[in-house]
Every structure is written in structure tokens, then in C-alpha cells.
Specification:
- This protein has 21 helices and 16 strands.
- It has about 650 residues and is an alpha/beta fold.
- Strands 3-2-1-4-5-6-7-8 form an eight-stranded mixed β-sheet, with helices on both faces. An eight-stranded mixed β-sheet has the order 11-10-9-12-13-14-15-16, with helices on both faces.
- Helix 16 (about 530-550) links the parallel strand 13 and strand 14 (about 555-560).
- Helix 14 (about 470-485) packs parallel to helix 16.
- It comes from Folsomia candida (Springtail).
- This is Retinol dehydrogenase 12.
- GO terms for molecular function: oxidoreductase activity.
């Protein structure tokens, strides 16, 4: 083949392809409505906040506002990240000031701190652009600092709190709130399970990401309800708008597990995507324009009003072949109420004590035994361990309930292995049988969580199958024997951990070595908390102390903890006065959820921070020293160990 012919067949197709791309892009530009914003708008003296300003649409929005003279607060997940973003942006901005500030939307505490800093530094706020967003693989099920599903937390809840806390500054001037949503808002709000803790997800594709879809629909419903509340309060100077920037080439999908051929295909389809500068045109229109905004429309796309499927708006605004979802006022109001409820729970959690969820820790391949795994904290720990790919043994008295728990967890996650084994801590024979079966099946045990416990009304005196007082027999002696029988597989897996749940009630307890079953002296009860229960929880703490001492140098570490006041069914056997049932909804707010209660369990079981500690006690994911209690002495721990070993028949 001659060089001329070769050149013809290689160059001409490229030229034709380039012309086709230019024609398509020109048509798309007309459709997208690019360059609609008037460059002559003067923003000098105005204050703006843009979240997610480090790249993409956020960066271009900052540039558009700053080049018109505005002072723009550039937020970043860290102050260092915000400063780096400003260094990049300075090459393209010449008028307005750029102010770096830290804002981590996955932490409601960070949002609160940011708003406090804003109120100190500025007297007003003209524009708030809620742009930041995340798109994560559905199967990873990531959570925020406070334990909310990450899409809902960052894309909606963080901005919900941010907007409400900055409202006093926004009300001082003619201001605008711009919320960036997405074409992918075409889903529904799972009001029964907003955090997707119980709902099973089967579609893990990017297009089928129900978590992202829910958060983006929440953006629109938030704006709708915000507008209604502003109008009903007589506030006409604050305008709230939602905008869909279109399909834009940004970094939002960088965390997704894309197919192998994505990088190969991308150069051939990039021209179909808007650039970040083009994607920022609609947000800038909503920020700056007065002429093109419509008072009746909350949602904008391609620099014009877009009201898909909302029957509350005039028919002229309906666009066919778009989402037919009805943005009902009822859904918007319910979402607002639920969002407030979540925030109240977070504030109460801070009042109850801070926790650290340790989302980043993986337990893949670890063998984990959890007693009392069918409800409450135990079930929450099972779910968290399964999410971390552990092999979890549910050691339970009721096999039927255990299997129902497995079904419940499998509706949420397919990760990890869930194995049901029978264990009745009220029977030493059952404990020995469980230990034998486990050791026949497994050589190693990485984590043992002694969680099971019971609390019976003070007026009842029940006994175990071996004749022990029920609280002491189940809460202490059963776990004492179980742990000792499993020491060999624990040592084989070293470094391994034994985590024993105690309680705040241990501070009311007393261990009388000469009367461990409290047959001679009746322990003092506190309200509905039996003194027998308090004694058994003190026994847990003393057991942990002595166990840590005896296992020093073996690679097996022992931890005891108080999970805090948790809303579980441990009090189901109490004779609760009828009037207290009326306050049950209040308890739901005041007490920790089982997931929150499980945080310190996970900390002791997985955190590297305590990897070299043993025999200590923990509360709120940190070391806790209850040494002021005379009962927590080495002597008391040693005496209880000796007496317990004799009772369970250990040599």
C-alpha cells in the first residue's frame, strides 16, 4: 500500500470523526443552554459559600462567583484541602476573595463547627451552594461519623443541617440557597428504612444505586419543604432552588468499581458529557439571574425551569419523557420531620457520650463468636462483623430466633459467613458441648464477644439448671467457663481478643465470696435494677481484670466495657409500671440504639489503638478507669476467679 493511500485512510477518518464530534457538541451546547449567565452581574460585597469546592462543578461555581467580585468561602474536608483548592483556583480568579474553611459533611459536628465559625467571621450570607456529594459502591455500605448511610448523610443530612444553621445569616439579606441534585433522583424515599439498615439491595450497578437516588430526591424534597416553610413564616428575601447540572464529567464516580473496559471506552464518549464549566452554568444562573428565574418552579436544568411530574405546578412546566415522580408535599414534610428527628438523636448521642464506629477496620477471615446474638447489641455486632467479612458464629439458646436473625441480616448484607450454634449459658453442660463442637470444627478463634445477659425483676429468684442464681450463673459463670474452654483456639489465633460486656450497674454491685449466690444476704436494688444483676456485672469486670493478668504473654487480650444506656429488650422480664410504658417513645430518643451501643464493642474487638492493652475497662470507645471502686482490686478479682473455677468444676 502506498504512503498516500495509507495517509488517506488514517487521516481522513480522524478528520471526519473530529467534525462529527464538533457538530454533536455544538448541538449539545444549544440543548444544554451553556453561557446563559450574564457576565456583567456585579457581586462585589456579596458573601457566598460553596460546598465541595475542590473540583468539578464546585470549583467552576467558585470561579464564576469570584470573577464577579464575590467573597467565596471555599470548603474542604480539611483546611489543608481547602487551601490547596484555592491555590489552583487563584490562576483563574482575579476579583473576589477566596476564604478557605474546613467542612466535613459526613460529620454533623464538623458542620456545626463550620457554622459557628461562619457566624463569627461574617455578618451575612448572600449565596449558599450545597454542591458537595458522594457516590459510593452500594456493596460497601459506608457510614458517616454518626452512623448514617453515607449518601443520605453527606448529600442530604449534612446540607440540611448546614442550611438551617446558616439561616440567621441568610435572612439578613436578599439571599439564595442553591441545592445541586441529579438526573438520578428518579427513585423513591424509603421512609420505613431511611438508613437502609434492614432493606436488602439487589442491584449494585451505578444506575441502580438506590442509596444515591434517594439522597438526590431528598435534595429536591428538602428545597420544596424549605420554600413552603419560608413562605409560611413570611420570609420573602430568601429564595431556595434546586438545579440539575446534567451529565457532567467530574470525579464523583472515582470511588466506583467500574468495568475493566471503562477506561478504553471513555475517550470515545467524553464529548457527550458536559465539562465542569458547562455543568456550572445552571447553578450560576440560579445564583445570579433574576430575569430567567420562575417563582413557581423549584427545579432548573439546562439553564431553564424544569418541573418533571410535579402536579402542583402549572401544566406548561411539565416535560414529557422525564421523571413522573410526584414530589408530594406530604413526602417533603415527612422527610423534613425525619431529618430533624435524626439530628435530635445525634445531639442526644453527644449528651450520652461520643462514640467512634471504626468503619475502616476489616475483619475478613476472622472467626468471631458472639453470645446473645439474636437481638440488641449482640445482633448489631453480628451485622457489623458480617459487613467486615468475618466468619460469625451466633451462639444462641433459641435456634429459631438465631435463624431469623440470620435472615434479617442477610436482607441487608451478603458479606461474611453466618453460622448458628446452640448455646445455653444457664447450663454448664450446654457450654461444654458448644466448646467441644466449636473446637472440632475450628482450630482458631480470633474474637470472643461475651455479650449475652439477662435482667429479672428483683422480686424473682430464679436458678440455672445447675442451681446457681440466674444472674450470676448466666451473666458471669456461663461466660467464665466458656472463655476458659476456648482458650486453646484463642491462643492458636494470637493475637486474639476476649470482649466481655459489663454495665454501668456494676457500680452498684458487691461480690461476697462467701455468699456468691446472695442466699444469706439480699443485695440492694436500685429502682428496677436488681442488685443480683449489678453483682453479676461487677463479676464481669473482675473476671476481665484477672483474665488479662493470667493471659499476659499469650497473645490473647482481654477487654471489658460498658456500652452505655442502650434501648434493648434486656428488660423484657421486668415488672415495669404501666406509666413507664407511656414514656417509651421518650426512651427511644434518650437511650442509645443497639448500633450505637455496639460501637465500643467493635472498638475493643477490632481497633489497633488497644491492640497491646489487656485487662482494662472501656466506655465510649476509650479507656475508662473505675478504680475508685474498692471491689475492683487484684485481690477481689483473684478470689472471684478461684471461687468461680470451683463452682464450674475447673481444675
Amino acid at each position: 500500500m502506498e504512503w498516500g493511500t495509507l495517509l488517506w485512510f488514517s487521516v481522513v477518518p480522524c478528520v471526519v470523526w473530529a467534525l462529527v464530534i464538533r457538530i454533536i457538541r455544538a448541538a449539545l451546547r444549544e440543548h444544554w443552554g451553556v453561557a446563559k449567565v450574564n457576565d456583567d452581574v456585579d457581586m462585589r460585597g456579596r458573601i457566598a459559600v460553596v460546598t465541595g469546592a475542590g473540583s468539578g462543578i464546585g470549583s467552576e461555581t467558585v470561579i464564576g462567583l469570584a470573577n464577579r467580585g464575590a467573597t467565596v468561602v471555599v470548603t474542604g474536608r480539611t483546611l489543608k484541602a481547602a487551601k490547596k483548592a484555592i491555590i489552583r483556583l487563584r490562576h483563574r480568579t482575579f476579583l473576589g476573595d477566596l476564604v478557605p474553611m474546613k467542612l466535613e459533611l459526613s460529620s454533623l459536628e464538623s458542620v456545626t463547627q463550620f457554622c459557628d465559625a461562619m457566624k463569627i467571621r461574617f455578618e451575612r450570607l448572600d449565596i449558599l451552594v450545597n454542591n458537595a456529594g458522594v457516590l459510593m459502591p452500594v456493596n460497601k455500605r459506608m457510614k458517616s461519623v454518626e452512623g448514617f448511610e453515607i449518601h443520605f448523610a453527606v448529600n442530604h443530612l449534612g446540607h440540611f443541617l448546614l442550611t438551617n444553621l446558616l439561616m440567621p445569616l441568610l435572612k439578613k439579606t436578599e439571599s439564595r440557597i442553591i441545592v445541586i441534585t441529579s438526573l438520578n433522583h428518579r427513585g423513591s424515599i424509603n421512609f420505613e428504612d431511611l438508613n437502609y439498615e434492614k432493606t436488602k439491595i439487589t442491584d449494585f450497578s451505578m444506575a441502580g444505586n438506590v442509596l444515591y437516588k434517594q439522597s438526590k430526591l431528598a435534595n429536591i424534597l428538602f428545597v420544596q419543604e424549605l420554600r413552603r416553610r419560608l413562605a409560611s413564616s413570611g420570609c420573602s428575601n430568601v429564595k431556595a432552588l434546586a438545579c440539575c447540572p446534567g451529565v457532567v464529567k467530574t470525579k464523583i464516580s472515582r470511588n466506583l468499581d467500574l468495568p475493566w473496559f471503562a477506561d478504553f471506552v471513555r475517550p470515545f464518549v467524553d464529548f457527550l458529557f458536559k465539562t465542569p464549566a458547562q455543568g456550572a452554568q445552571t447553578p450560576l444562573l440560579c445564583c445570579l439571574s433574576n430575569d430567567m428565574l420562575d417563582a413557581n418552579c423549584i427545579l432548573y436544568r439546562h439553564c431553564k425551569p424544569w418541573c418533571p411530574g410535579d402536579r402542583s405546578f402549572p401544566d406548561d412546566y411539565l416535560i414529557s419523557n422525564v421523571s413522573t415522580y410526584n414530589y408530594s408535599k406530604e413526602d417533603a414534610q415527612k422527610l423534613w420531620t425525619d431529618s430533624e428527628r435524626f439530628l435530635i438523636r445525634v445531639l442526644l448521642t453527644k449528651w450520652r457520650g461520643t462514640i467512634d464506629r471504626h468503619n475502616e477496620i476489616n475483619a475478613k477471615g476472622k472467626n468471631v463468636i458472639i453470645t446473645g446474638a439474636t437481638s440488641g447489641i449482640g445482633q448489631a455486632v453480628v451485622m457489623e462483623m458480617a459487613d467486615r467479612d468475618a466468619n460469625v458464629i451466633l451462639a444462641c439458646r433459641d435456634i429459631t430466633k438465631a435463624k431469623a436473625t440470620v435472615t434479617h441480616i442477610r436482607n441487608r448484607t451478603s458479606r461474611g459467613q453466618l453460622i448458628v450454634m446452640e448455646l445455653d449459658l444457664a447450663s454448664l453442660e450446654s457450654v461444654r458441648k458448644f466448646a467441644r463442637e466449636f473446637k472440632n470444627k475450628y482450630e482458631k478463634l480470633d474474637i470472643l464477644v461475651n455479650n449475652a445477659g439477662l435482667m429479672i425483676s428483683p422480686d424473682k429468684r430464679l436458678k440455672t439448671k445447675d442451681g446457681f442464681e440466674m444472674h450470676f450463673g448466666v451473666n458471669h459463670l456461663g461466660h467464665f467457663l466458656l472463655t476458659n474452654l476456648l482458650l486453646d483456639p484463642l491462643k492458636n489465633a494470637a493475637p486474639s481478643r476476649v470482649v466481655t460486656l459489663s454495665s454501668m450497674a456494676h457500680s452498684w454491685g458487691a461480690v461476697n465470696i462467701n455468699d456468691l449466690m446472695s442466699e444469706k444476704t439480699a443485695p440492694k436494688d436500685h429502682f428496677m435494677v436488681s442488685g443480683l444483676y449489678s453483682n453479676s456485672k461487677l463479676g464481669n469486670a473482675l473476671f476481665n481484670k484477672e483474665l488479662g493478668k493470667r493471659l499476659t504473654g499469650t497473645g490473647v487480650h482481654s477487654y471489658s466495657l460498658c456500652p452505655g444506656m442502650v434501648f434493648t429488650n434486656i428488660g423484657k422480664n421486668l415488672n415495669v409500671p404501666f406509666i413507664l410504658h407511656l414514656f417509651r417513645p421518650l426512651f427511644w430518643y434518650l437511650l442509645r440504639s443497639p448500633t450505637e451501643g455496639a460501637a465500643t464493642v467493635l472498638y475493643c474487638a477490632l481497633s489497633k489503638n488497644v491492640a497491646h492493652q489487656t485487662g482494662q475497662m472501656y466506655y465510649n470507645c476509650k479507656f475508662w478507669d473505675p478504680s475508685t471502686r474498692i471491689e475492683l482490686t487484684d485481690k477481689a478479682a483473684s478470689e472471684l476467679w478461684t471461687a468461680s473455677a470451683k463452682l464450674v468444676g475447673m481444675k
